[in-house]
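Lab meeting notes turned into a lecture example. A postdoc, R.K., suggested we walk through two folding results consecutively so the class can see how the record format repeats. The first protein's sequence and structure tokens come next.
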Amino acid sequence: MTINEFVKKNKPTIFFFFFISISLIFLSTQTITKYIRSVRIFFVYFFSTTYLPVYKIVNYPFDTFNKFIQLPYMYEENVKLKEFVKKLYFEKLHYYAVFGKKQNEQLVNELSKKYNYKLFSAEVISRDCKNWYNECIVLVDNPTILKEDMPVILYVEPDKFYFVGRIWTIEKNIAKVLLITNPLSMLPVRIKDKPIYGVLIGNSSIILSMDYILLEDDVKLGDIVITSGIGNIPEGIEIGKVIDIDISSTGFKKAIVKLNYNINALKNLIILFPQ
């Protein structure tokens, strides 16, 4: 029997023993690596009259083999490192969330003492893209003392308050806020430093309409619109400024008002308890 015939006849067996040998080689990589280093040192020491060229020639295949057998270990270490980085990232997010919440609570307590109002912090946790300018969901720590129609405001440093909306519905420690931009929102307002009153109506955008202004009232572009104090909402909380003036079909003046704050970036809000 020739060698070719023997190989063809026993091809599966040969492949089997070949892969078994490869497996055993990989299982004993540490021992093999030690022998490889010994062989490399032998070649470099006994066959080099000029050390550097021979070292490079001999070293390259041995280093390549070492790198090859180290690939599984490198891959495993890389997977572990990715998992560790992912864990650290989530811990960082959690830390910033807790730290930010504590900072906001401290700020609200300071503002409550400064302005002699009972204030509580509320964190926006959800906004539906279909009702972006109509409502938002807030998380509160003391839901038992909440009531519908309580004003919700935004504080902007160093010393600015803006009216955002009112508590609409309450369920456990979650409340839905009716935003001032909601068409269902109708808020009595006035012009700052002027005895000019009207009703601010939402329009599902940052542009609102101040209706029912008397024709003789001297409304001007750039006038600041604030809460009027009528109802349970304190007077003087800023909302926006007049950007256009028109005459409505009802015979009243109508002022187009643009919000003075970014309603798209609501995060930490304040619930105000009227005195």
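The second example is placed directly after the first for contrast:
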Amino acid sequence: KGAFREDLYYRLSVITLTLPPLRDRPEDILHLADSYLSYFSQINHKIIQGFSEETREVLLGYRWPGNLRELRNAIERAVILSNGSDLEPEDLPMSIFEPPTPQAYAIGDPISLEELEKLHIKKVLSTATSLQNTASILGIDQATLWRKRKQYNL
């Protein structure tokens, strides 16, 4: 049901830490990447000294929308695929080199509520696994989703 026991929540939330996203603290990226490199080199029985200068530039230039999980997975993949003593850009996932997907609209753009709804439904339709899943994500029933799709020609 997606419900979380309230008593368990309060037991677990003795101390709450709030950290800004990785993109807002680039000074941490290389330190974290080095830690992940050491860890994954050890468990994969590889001797990898570090990152080439080009790889460091790529790591620092990427926005890391997936935060630590994305960085961790990228370094793990690079360690597994690497055959050299340093990680090279070609060891990193291709998604890091792809330009970010532009948003359909930006906050503050003059856009009608109807157009905003259409764009949002279109985006959820493109990422959801089914129409039922789409309706659930949007918080509407399937009949309403059907009417909206017909209204907006989606």
